[in-house]
Amino acid sequence: MSIIRVVSYNIHKGRSATGGRESLSDLRLGLYGLRPDLLFLQEVQGRNQRHGSLDAQHESLAAVLRMEAAYGCNAVREATDHGNALLSRYPILQYENQDISDHKLEQRGLLHGVVEVEGQPVHCIVVHLGLLAGGRSRQVQALVERIGRLVPDDEPLLIAGDFNDWGNRLAPLFVQQLGLYEVFAVAPQGGGEIHRLRRTVARLRGHMPWTADRGLASVPELGINGGARLTLPPRTFPAAFPWLRLDRIYQRGFAVRRARVLYGAPWKQLSDHAPLVAELELP
Fold first, then answer.
1. pTM score > 0.90 for this model?
2. Is the alpha carbon torsion for 158, 162, 163, 165 positive or negative?
3. Taking 70 as the threshold, does the pLDDT of residue 224 lie above it?
4. Helical packing angle, 24-34 and 57-65, nearest 10°
């Protein structure tokens, strides 16, 4: 059994949400304190030829956190580029960045890495979907197709990032087509439930219908006791006054021990998104 701490965070290219000051130094300290095992990062600058302190952010963070790093470059500018990054305390066996850009104004990609956790391959996909609903649907279909080709049904899977899906319209697809569950929907709601964690892993592959609630898609998810509960993902944007539900961690093959959003200081000064943290159990 392995306990894995997963963090998903849109780091806003290493700049604060207000004023645009550099926040990478404080971000290193904040993430160090979280002791993550897997980091799913979005809006990471792989190259910044104007400001050396903002260059190769995935490498800078990985060095401080003593993690391996994989970077997927998506958006290329004259002096900069940015994309997604996967940082791991476990060996990264392989990774690939798939271009899923829907139009020229938004360059997007799927960074798919495979890490080894005590001999078990775990598939990790970092996503940052587009701003237009039609484009997001096509990007998720590309994700579904990739998983169907490359991820065996019996291997654990994590998909995390900035989905830009404020209406939660994509959630039924993840549940019904991929058997994936958002971590906040299956996290324990009471201390007495923790002993039942292992029993839920086998139940996380069910297909369940969805309904709309106040204009958002509320998806029946499996609770930690095996029952379904209607749950919306947490509000993560903007970090100073969270209102929109943009960020997600989806999982398959794990038991969720805990899930939380990091609100307030120092996180609201570091980026325009609030980070997500989940503690997962891999049997």
1. no
2. positive
3. no
4. 40
